[in-house]
Amino acid sequence: MRTTAVLAVSLGLSGLSALAHAENTELGKEVFTQISQPSCTICHALSDAGSAGAIGPDLDNLKPSREQVINAVTQGVGVMPAFEGSLSAEQIQALADYILSVTSGQN
Ligand code: HEC
Questions:
Q1: CA dihedral 41, 44, 47, 50 (to 10 degrees)
Q2: How far is the C-alpha of 23 from the C-alpha of 37, rounded, in Å?
Q3: Is the CB of 92 within 6 Å of ligand 1?
Q4: Residue 72 C-alpha to ligand 1 middle, in angstroms?
Q5: What pLDDT sits at residue 72?
Q6: C-alpha angle 92/14/47, rounded to 5°?
Q7: CA of 18 to the centre of ligand 1 (A)
Q8: What is the dihedral of CA 57, 59, 64, 67, to 10 degrees?
Q9: CA 22 to centroid of ligand 1, rounded, Å
Q10: Residue 83 has pLDDT above 80, yes or no
Q11: What is the chain's Cα-based Rg?
Q12: How many whole angstroms separate alpha carbon 88 and alpha carbon 43?
């Protein structure tokens, strides 16, 4: 924590937000591959996560918007279960940050 704070101060404001963003996408990847139950990887292909699930759409091709990710994960869609009860709002935001950062270059 202390190192992070010192680093953030020395990088200035834009560095600070880049650092926060990097932490978020890292958390998002963890949620995608490990924390979500059932894991997103079982059903979705996403090359950055090394997953090849083929039950749901290939996310590299779909390039979902932030809204699509948040809605699908929160409420479920078709046979995809809702994760509202098992993932926090923060984890779902981080998931969206992560998926957008590896599929569309946006964040
Ligand atoms: C049991 C399999 C399964 C799991 C687990 C699963 N999905 Fe899905 N997902 C699907 C299917 C099937 C669809 C397509 C549903 C449809 O369009 O009827 C889908 C659709 C989506 C979509 C597109 C929504 C849209 O608007 O078209 C996104 C984004 C998505 N999933 C992300 C995720 C993420 C992130 C996770 C992990 C938290 C996850 N999914 C877990 C099966 C799954």
A1: 20
A2: 21
A3: no
A4: 6
A5: 98
A6: 40
A7: 28
A8: 80
A9: 24
A10: yes
A11: 15
A12: 21
Q: Is 73 in the pocket of ligand 1 (CB under 6 A)?
A: yes
pLDDT of residue 59: 98
For residue 70 and ligand 1, the question of a CB distance below 6 A is answered with no
Between CA 76 and CA 55 the distance in angstroms is 14
pLDDT in tens, 18-50: 777 778 999 999 999 999 999 999 999 999 999
In the block, tokens 């083929």 appear at 54
Neighbours of 9 (CB within 10 A): 11
Task: Answer whether residue 91 shows pLDDT above 60.
Answer: yes
How far away, in angstroms, is 90 Cα from ligand 1 center?
18
